[in-house]
Amino acid sequence: MSDAAPRLAIVVLISGNGSNLQAIIDAVATAALPVEIRAVISNKPEAQGLERARRAGIAALVVDHRQYPDRATFDAALQATIDQYQPQLVVLAGFMRILTPEFVAHYHGRLLNVHPSLLPAFRGLDTHRRALEAGVQEHGVSIHFVTAELDGGPVAAQTAVAVLPGDDAFSLAARVRQAEHALYPRVIRWFAEGRLTLRANRAMLDDEPVRLSQQTTNG
Ligand code: GAR
After folding, report:
1. How many CA atoms within 13 Å lie on the side-chain side of 159?
2. What three-state secondary structure class fits 160?
3. 22 within ligand 1 shell (Cβ under 6 A)
4. Whether the predicted pLDDT of 118 surpasses 90
5. Which of 9, 96, 115, 130 could form a Cys-Cys staple with 15, CB 3.0–4.6 A?
6. 93 in contact with ligand 1, CB cutoff 6 A
């Protein structure tokens, strides 16, 4: 990619380890991903991902939800902080907060999340343990546009991960996370290239509605 190529401005929100953030940073570094990460923001000061951002020379900020009296006030502060960086896309990468409808509406069509299941299966927390208890043969990862419905927004892409004999929640989570690291930079690239959009509450890839059985074959 030449220096003159336009880069999509993004802000990444995290709450913890930041391994998905690292995958995005690494994809940008190898020029596989034409984006500029303008800032990384955590709601937790102790999030390890903040150090990953600093190491990469990216602004690393904390908006600590415990400093705010309620969800609406926190989300307003978070939104104000994000908007200082004028992102074209906001990337939730292990950001473990439920967002207000107002916040979600403000970033309509430019707010992506990674969720560790094949949505609509296993919304919410503790997905790997629940998948094992349900006895499913396939688990996986979804990248979706965020809407007001928790983990209910239109799915942009999924990767299935086989559940293996002897898997526990830890081993399954580790394989799903590998799939997350491969898929999330790829989906962000689609968005940066203008191939992925949200239209009438549908995720569209190359002007076709995303169909959940085929989307990981789209390059
Ligand atoms: C990831 O597995 C992501 O799918 C999950 O949190 C983990 C964050 O890991 N997100 C959710 O559960 C959202 N509901 P990371 O901090 O190492 O990227």
Report:
1. 19
2. strand
3. no
4. yes
5. 96
6. yes
